[in-house]
Amino acid sequence: MVVGAGRGPLVAASLRAASKAGVKIRMYAVEKNPNAVVTLQHRRVREGWGDDVEIISCDMRKWEAPQQADIMVSELLGSFGDNELSPECLDGAQRFLAPGGVSIPQKYTSFMAPLASAKLWNEVRNFRDIEHFETSYVVKVHTACQLAEAKPVFEFSHPNPEFEHSNNRETEINWTLSQSATIHGFVGYFESQLYGDIYISINPSTFSTGMFSWFPIYFPIREPVFAPEGSTVTALMWRLSDAQKVWYEWALTSPTVTPIHNPNGRSQAIGL
Q: Closest by alpha carbon to 218, among 129, 107, 116?
């Protein structure tokens, strides 16, 4: 079962993998975007998927599958791992999996580090409002310095039998700076365990060679903060939700205390 099938790259890859393994499969390709469904239907005819693939035009969280799957494949990862609602979507779809079934990916972890980048910060300041300082940005980071090693923030695993209707998280992260610097915000990445020992990563310390599908994510702060050499930088990060949306909040608590950015998702949120 491919959930969030999009325009079909994972469907085609799964069919190739099954052919290479010499395994006959029955596949459901679930996609809620009607434009992408049209493309899937066209590819089904053009590429001869035939009866091996049934295309389902529906939100994966609402669809009632006629049978359970041995493998559920998805690609719902964002630059911060969970920032495109992968946890909510896959928790909603995990009922499709048979006992002992496998989710690909199996796990993903977000990472974050303090960042010095007057260029990025000034580009945000040019909007001259608080809203843009409370918004995260997917960017190819140039003219910047990551000030410490990226550390884990949030982790999600699938299937998640302990799911209790909330993927809210909060964490405190600490770094010690090896040099004096001005902090302009945070840079974020993700690592993902697809299956077994197969991983993908945009974290610089474990970067997957040739990976170009995701850029890092930038969380700005309202005012730059100077941190002396040897000082501890402490950040608080929240992933929160209500019935309509998911959002992040973030703040520095050391070497100085900043306001909480994006409280209650007032400036940026992801609709459920």
A: 116
CB 105 within 8 A of CB 77: yes
User: Locate tokens 């100077």: which residue?
Assistant: 226
Q: In what order do the strands lie in the sheet with 69-74?
A: 53-57, 27-31, 2-3, 69-74, 97-104
Measured N-to-C along each axis, helices 34-46 and 9-21 cross at an angle, to the nearest 10 degrees, of 40
Residue 233's closest CA among 146, 149, 114, 153? 114
Query: Is pTM beyond 0.90 here?
Result: yes
Q: Report which secondary-structure segment, H or E, holds 102.
A: strand 97-104
Of 40, 171, 162, nearest to 109 (Cα)?
171
pLDDT tens per residue across span 194-232: 999 999 999 999 999 988 889 999 999 999 999 999 999
Enzyme catalytic residues: 75, 84
